Amino acid sequence: MIAFYESRDERLFIGEMTKYPFPLHVHELAEIIGITSGFVRISINGTEYTLNPGDVAVIFPLTPHSYDEIGEDASGQVAIVPTDIIPEYTSTFRTLEPEYPILRAADAPEDTALALNRLQALNMEDHLPLCIAYLHVLLASTMHRLSYHPVYDYSDRGLGHRIMRYISDHLCEEITLETVSHALGISVSHLSHFFAEKMHVNFRQYINANRIAKARLLMRDSNYTLTMISDACGYSNMRTFRRAFLKEVGCLPSEHMVVLRNRVKSS
Q: In terms of domains, do 68 and 170 share one?
């Protein structure tokens, strides 16, 4: 599956974890997930992990990740934050990657559970300074217990961010290798090489996968019809949308939408 770039309107979120699966995606922010009950199965950079109560996952910027399965009684906290929100960890987020991005409950100090429990009891809108303070505690009790290796492709990361963000912002338009390369000031061959070497897909596959991922997110909103979703995702007609969706997901969009909306109602 190809990760899509999630362009987030909010630069900071500290609150309750999602109650339903979320497709493979990347964003320029760091994401910390702490489980307080039940289980969650997630994928981080191509590896699947099952998180249980007390476990914490730390996802670095531009790392592909997805929420694959959420247990019925699962609950937890998630923080999606800019890398400079707590300056002590800015350099770590930007120059290193964790060897194993999970801190298990058995290896976590008492402060980890304390921070998760306090964050669960607080509302970001009403208690933002306290939420950031307990986020600091959560990071301090987690980050220093992970092992890291250096990241050497700084320029490639920056280029990848520019490419993915531009495509995300213009996804519903008629977009080609030529239009993207012209807008970003890089050659067509360089852009094509980036997708082949870094994303392991060609340009058109990446565009289609991102459009279908966006469609799946819009399907959760009952205000959108399939025609509206097709238009919002850059498809010229419903026939093309159905064919692309069936190829990517394995079922018709109408079938998938019913499943998603029933899941949202029951959550």
A: no
The 10s digit of each residue's pLDDT in 66-80 is: 999 999 899 999 999
Separation CA 262–CA 26 (nearest Å): 26
Count CB atoms within 10 A of the CB of residue 251. 12
Q: Are 36 and 77 in the same domain?
A: yes
Distances (CA, A) of 3 to 26, 188, 214: 6, 22, 11
pLDDT class of 110 with cuts at 50, 70, 90: very high
Contact 168, 206 (CB under 8 A): no
Q: What is the Cα–Cα distance from 118 to 14, expressed in whole angstroms?
A: 12
Q: In CATH, what number is assigned to the domain containing residue 213?
A: 1.10.10.60
What is the tens place of the pLDDT at every residue in 190-229? 899 888 877 778 899 899 988 998 898 899 888 999 999 9
What's the chain look like in SS3? CCCEECCCCCCCEEEECCCCCEEEEECCCEEEEEEEECCEEEEECCEEEEECCCCEEEECCCCCEEEEEECCCCEEEEEEECCCCCHHHHHHHHHEEECCCEECHHHCCHHHHHHHHHHHHCCCCCCHHHHHHHHHHHHHHHHHHCCEEECCCHHHHHHHHHHHHHHHHCCCCCCCHHHHHHHHCCCHHHHHHHHHHHHCCCHHHHHHHHHHHHHHHHCCCCCCCHHHHHHHCCCCCHHHHHHHHHHHHCCCHHHHHHHHHHHHHHC
Domain that holds residue 173: 154-266
- Token digits for 170? 């213009």
